Amino acid sequence: MSRRRLSNDLAAGLEMSGVEFLSTVLDVRDWEAVESWAKATSQKFGKVDRLVTLAGVARQGILKHNIEEIEDSDWEWVLDVNVKGTLNTLRATIPNINSGGSLVLIASLADLLGHAQNAAYISSKHAVVGLARSATSKLGPRNIRVNCVCPGLTATPLVGCHSGTRFPDVRQTKPPAKSWTARRGGQLD
């Protein structure tokens, strides 16, 4: 299913429930697109109270590469979306966040645990944790809370890259790591 279709489906559901929203599909790597989105959002709703950044990509095949096998183009694409996209979103939004607001950056349990393969994704999500720490130092004095969530393996289209299926049964795709608290993957509802 395309991002545009997912966005349209979500917008239709929100509209039916009476929620006021602004639906936009954009490339978070593109500063001008993100800045335009942030301006449109501020014009429609005023100051920002909450923001969640959750860009997360990896190319099929790159998840199986050892560090010495990573292609520059794969490395750059993953870091551009996962890190630069998060940075662009923060840069565009921070000037318009209300005191008492909240930012939630989504990283990954993978960046905390490491893995012999998947270095681009792990490195990118580790950088998101660093951005969250920097944002906390910058925004804390303005009474703006910054949290970074590091979810474990969750059945998403990205995880489908591991097994070749779009939405695999996470428990069959990868055995739970012993360091995972719940010892199981997650499922989106």
TrEMBL record:
Domain of life of the native organism: Eukaryota
Full protein name: Uncharacterized protein
Region (Disordered) location: 167-189
Family: Belongs to the short-chain dehydrogenases/reductases (SDR) family.
Pfam families found in the cross-reference section: adh_short_C2 (PF13561)
Organism: Exophiala oligosperma
PANTHER family named in the record: SHORT CHAIN DEHYDROGENASE_REDUCTASE FAMILY PROTEIN, PUTATIVE (AFU_ORTHOLOGUE AFUA_3G09150)-RELATED, SHORT-CHAIN DEHYDROGENASES/REDUCTASES FAMILY MEMBER
Gene Ontology MF terms: oxidoreductase activity, acting on the CH-OH group of donors, NAD or NADP as acceptor; quinone binding
Listed InterPro entries: NAD(P)-bd_dom_sf, SDR_fam
GO biological process: fatty acid biosynthetic process
